[in-house]
Amino acid sequence: MKLLGAMMQIKRPRFYSDSNNSVPSEKSPPVSIPADISGEMLDLDEDDDLEVFSKGTSLTDGNSLNPSTQTSPASMINQYKFQEEEEDADAKDLFVTVDNPESHVTAIETYITYRVVTKTTRSEFDSSEFEVRRRYQDFLWLRGRLEEAHPTLIIHPLPEKFVMKGMVERFNEDFIENRRRALHRFLNRIAEHPIFSSGDDFKIFLTAAPGELISHKKQGAGFLSRMGETVRAVAASVRGVRNRPDEFTEMLEYSEAFSQKISALHKVTQRISKEQREYLEELKECGPTLALWSSCEEALAEPLRCMADSLDRCCQETEEQLKHINDELIPDLHEYVLCTDTLKAVLRRRDNIQADLEAKAEALASKKTERESESKVLSLAWDSLVGRSPEEVKQHKLHKLNGQIKEIRDELEKLEDRQEWANNALRSDWTRWKKIMRTDLQSAFIDTADNNVKYYEKCLAIWESFLHSQRAEAEGNKNVDYS
Amino acid sequence: MERTMADSGSEDIAVIGNTDLTPSESQNNVRNTMFEKGTNLLKRMEISVAEAEKRTGKNAVNMQETYTVYLIETRPVDAVQEATSPVPDSLWRRYSEFELLRNYLLVTYPYVVVPPLPEKRAEFVWHKLSADNMDPDFVERRRVGLENFLLRVASHPALSNDKIFRSFLTEEKVWKETVFETGFQAKADSRIKALNATFRVKNPDKRFAEMKHYGDELQSVISQLLRVRARAADRLYGVYKVHGNYGRVFSEWSAIEKEMGDGLQSAGHHMDAYAASIDDILEEEEHYADQLKEYLFYADALRAVCRKHELTQYELETAAQDLCSKKQQQEELATGTVRTFSLKGMTSKLFGQETPEQREAKLKMLEAQIEEGEELVKERNVESGEFVKGAWADIERFKEQKDHDLREALINYAIMQISMCKKGIQVWNNAKECFSKM
Question: Where in this protein does the record put region Disordered (chain B) (predicted)?
Answer without folding.
Answer: 1-27
